[in-house]
Specification:
The protein is α/β, with parallel strands linked by helices. The chain is built from twelve helices and 15 strands. Strands 7, 8, 9, 10, 11, 12, 13, 14 and 15 form a nine-stranded mixed beta sheet that branches. A six-stranded mixed beta sheet has the order 2-3-1-4-5-6, with helices on both faces. Strand 4, helix 4 and strand 5 form a beta-alpha-beta unit. Helix 2 packs across helix 10. The longest helix has 28 residues. The radius of gyration is 24 Å and the shape is globular. The relative contact order is 0.12.
Length: 396
Amino acid sequence: MRPCHMRQNRVAVVSVLIALSGFCAMPAVAQETVKIGVVIPMTGTSAAVGREIAAATKLYMAQHGDTVAGKKIELIIRDDASVPDNAKRLAQELIVNDHVSFLGAGLTPSAMSMAPLATQGKVPTVVMVSGTSVVTERSPYYVRTSFTLGQQSGIIADWAIKNGSKKAVSILSDWAPGAEAGKVFNQHFTNGGGQILDTLKVPLANPDFAPFLQRAADLHPDTLFVFVPAGQAGPFARQFAERGLDKSGIKLVGPGDIVDDDDLPGTGDTLMGVVTAGIYSAAHASALNKQYVDAYQKATGHRANFISVGGYDGMHVIYAALQKTGGKTDADAVVGAMKGMSWDSPRGPISIDPRTRDIVQNVYVSKVEKVNGAPWAVQFETFPNVKDPLKEAAAK
């Protein structure tokens, strides 16, 4: 072979090797980006929930940057339209096609449908919305930054008994969170010596509360316990007032969902005096929360609410876990880093229970009052470091 041909062959071989080495290096470069896929309802009956989570996750990134432990962070938001089958399909696409390192889960039915995929794919998943106790038991890779309904419902039942309630009716949205809220309230209320006159279940989709409110009024309770999901508090308040129940002397109580900060500005005087037990109020008195509320208002044009802090703290737990692991995204290492983690949130001090992977947080008893001409849930009593009562009872 002539020298020139030999040189040409060597050049060709070297060129191929360089090309191959560049191709082989591509996955390593891609791994420098950590992708977070959040599956939430941006359309449909619970679009307001998705809007809050999307806004809060984006705000967290805007405030804390898009690089953690040398890794670029990419946030991918997918709309499941409140349909569990959509959530399952989208989660699979995010894992298989987008190669996400983390998932964010929204409403209970969707979070339940995504759990097997998170387990099989070993993808750490932050539950940012669901308040149903059992959700975190569906996958060892689930960690919750939202709340459980039991954390709030038991405390408001105890408060009602302590403040003279004896006969109650429960009005609950007919889905798993509603059933759980009612179960814990009824247990605490009856254990305290109260009587549950009836439990009324309202269809989740397109609810008409009027007939249920009338049925409740006909039973002559002194207390009405209500659970409706975020976004339905406004219609409930209007129908409550239309039937004159706001002036009937019936004590209206519930978890913080019924005085959602996203709905309160439009409720006028109809919820004045309503007492709830919740995890968050935009009126929470701390410097950190004031900064959060101001930044959220500037970014979105409306008040921060209890849904939003689940997304905001969800991003925090991911960022903090990556710092602990030095940017490694191994699922077991990440979840291990999240267990026992504690930090200061706009809602107050919170932590992740190392045994259950559930959030431990303060629950605040609040009363709706006028502040500068607008209704706010003003906190007046604090129950610190509340764990999920259903899991605690099961562990005994």
